[in-house]
Design a protein that fits this description.
By secondary structure, the chain is an alpha/beta fold. Helices cover about 20% and strands about 30% of the residues. The chain folds into two domains: about 220 residues, Spore Coat Polysaccharide Biosynthesis Protein SpsA, Chain A (Alpha-Beta Complex), CATH 3.90.550; about 170 residues, Hexapeptide repeat proteins (UDP N-Acetylglucosamine Acyltransferase, domain 1, 3 Solenoid), CATH 2.160.10. The protein is built from ten helices and 36 strands. The strands form six sheets. Strands 13, 14, 16, 17, 19, 20, 22, 23, 25, 27, 30 and 33 form a twelve-stranded parallel beta sheet that branches. The chain starts with 13 loop residues before the first strand and ends with a helix. The chain binds uridine-diphosphate-N-acetylglucosamine (UD1) and calcium ion (CA).
């Protein structure tokens, strides 16, 4: 990540315009592009998180018509609608009224650049602050594959001359590997004044924000250049780009987890979310997926091939291998959830064991309970969900079905193979299976019948 130089002019106010009006045709999706998720969070949220981290005086988000969903995600900021999608320059102009009279710098950031960090935004700001002659600054980068990006045309002395979109580029431009990341920062007083001079004479017939570079240069002013890292600046235009961004973000999250004291046995196969919280000395086995809202206490072990989402695990819990914990699951300290167990909207008490092949849904399970292999809480009657309550110290024998609503009292025992439909009091033993019969010599007679049938 870029090193942030000393900020000796932090008092220059900063406003940020985030562009998110494009539908993202190349995503082939009904969902607006910026709502596609990276590490469990819409792209636009990542961008806004980085923007908010630099404490701007004002943030204006430009969205398209009928993008109420995007508006909801950005509701803490000023939102303007670009009725017609006429290009990035036109999109920025839509924020003009909202920033009337603003004195300071204005950064323009694209909603489809979710890997951008706050440090890089600050670095851009400082490029204007530290050299008063710069009217604007461009954040460039050298992606592995420059295809699709605007190219930065430089003079022999290294100063920027123009940004040329790929479709408008000449063969010389296409040789350059220095591309435009889309992030630009301007002196507020110049930006809107120059924007009205931008024309749409290009292959796409759009008003390009990037044309401000040549306009400013033509009037003899200076343009700053910051070169950032490809892993931070790739734009998301397609599902392939989205998958690449996911993998970069996952690596960041893995590094963060390990730096915080988590052992990832095979980091490349651990999937995390932006909001995953780990305690100390947690061990995560290979092929573990942690979806949104997972909080893990100290000394927890999550074994291979487990899938967790919306889950809170207290200290010293052991999960998996092959466990599925769904939203609303809370597991208290020292509890153990073993292989092929599914838990949903359930509270599992301290030191309770659900070791094998069970489904526990909509349940309150007390402390020190043993749930035998193959236990099912039958929580759904085809119309509604019902609650199962199991008291402290209860023992549920293997292959039992607890038909909710139902309660099993403290220290009660349910015999294996029972279908329990009535509440069980504390200390009771309840068993519902049919009585076992013993037919003396029956096995021999049965085999005898089989051999006569065959002959
Ligand atoms: C843009 C840049 C290109 C740069 C690349 C970096 C321009 C003209 N081109 O190209 O130089 O290399 O990003 O990723 O700026 N948007 C609107 N309204 C519009 C058009 C776009 O809000 O009318 C928004 C989009 O939602 C998106 C952003 O602006 O968030 C960029 O638009 P996009 O169409 O993705 O531009 P690129 O072709 O990627
Ligand atoms: Ca883009």
């Amino acid at each position: 990540m870029s090193k942030v130089p000393k900020d000796d002019s932090s008092d220059t106010p900063l406003a940020v315009i985030v562009l998110a009006a494009g539908h993202g045709t190349r995503m082939q999706s009904e969902l607006p592009k910026v709502l596609h998720q990276v590490a469990g969070l819409p792209m636009i949220d990542h961008v806004l998180d980085s923007v908010e981290a630099v404490s701007p005086a004002k943030v204006v988000v430009v969205i398209g018509p009928n993008m109420e969903d995007v508006g909801r995600v950005c509701r803490h900021h000023t939102i303007v609608v670009q009725e017609e999608r006429l290009g990035t320059g036109h999109a920025v102009l839509q924020a003009k009224d909202e920033l009337e009279g603003f004195v300071g710098n204005i950064a323009v950031i694209f909603g489809d650049t979710p890997l951008l960090t706050a440090d890089t935004i600050l670095l851009m700001k400082q490029t204007l602050d530290n050299d008063r002659k710069n009217i604007l600054a461009v954040l460039g980068f050298k992606p592995k594959i420059p295809k699709g990006y605007g190219r930065i045309r430089c003079k022999i002395d290294g100063t920027i001359e123009a940004i040329v979109e790929e479709l408008d580029a000449n063969s010389e431009d296409l040789k350059t590997t220095l591309c435009n990341s889309g992030v630009m920062i301007f002196r507020a007083e110049v930006m809107f004044k120059e924007l009205v001079n931008v024309k749409n004479q290009n292959v796409k017939g759009e008003y390009y924000l990037t044309d401000l570079v040549s306009l400013v240069r033509d009037s003899g002013e200076k343009v700053g250049l910051v070169v950032g890292l490809p892993d931070e600046l790739q734009g998301i235009n397609s599902r392939m780009d989205l998958a690449n961004a996911e993998s970069i973000m996952q690596n960041r999250l893995r590094v963060r987890a390990m730096a915080g004291g988590v052992t990832l046995i095979d980091p490349g196969t651990t999937w995390l979310s932006m909001d995953t919280i780990f305690g100390k000395d947690v061990t995560v086995g290979p092929n573990v997926f942690l979806g949104k809202s997972v909080e893990v206490g100290d000394r927890v072990e999550i074994k291979a091939f487990s899938h967790l989402e919306g889950v809170k695990l207290s200290n010293d819990v052991v999960i998996g291998p092959f466990a599925r914990l769904r939203p609303g699951t809370v597991i208290d300290s020292g509890a153990k959830v073993g292989n092929f167990v599914e838990i949903k909207a359930a509270h599992i008490g301290r030191a309770t064991k659900v070791s094998h092949l069970s489904y526990i849904g909509d349940s309150n399970v007390g402390q020190g309970v043993n749930i035998g292999a193959g236990t099912i809480t039958c929580n759904y009657d085809g119309l509604t969900k019902h609650l199962t309550e199991i008291g402290d110290g209860a023992f549920i024998g293997s292959n039992s079905a607890l038909v909710a609503p139902i309660s099993v009292g403290e220290n009660a025992i349910v015999g294996a193979g029972s279908v329990v439909t009535d509440d069980i009091e504390e200390d009771e033993l309840s068993v519902t299976r049919a009585e076992q019969k013993h037919l003396k010599g029956g096995a021999k007679r049965w085999r005898g019948r089989r051999s006569t049938d065959k002959s």
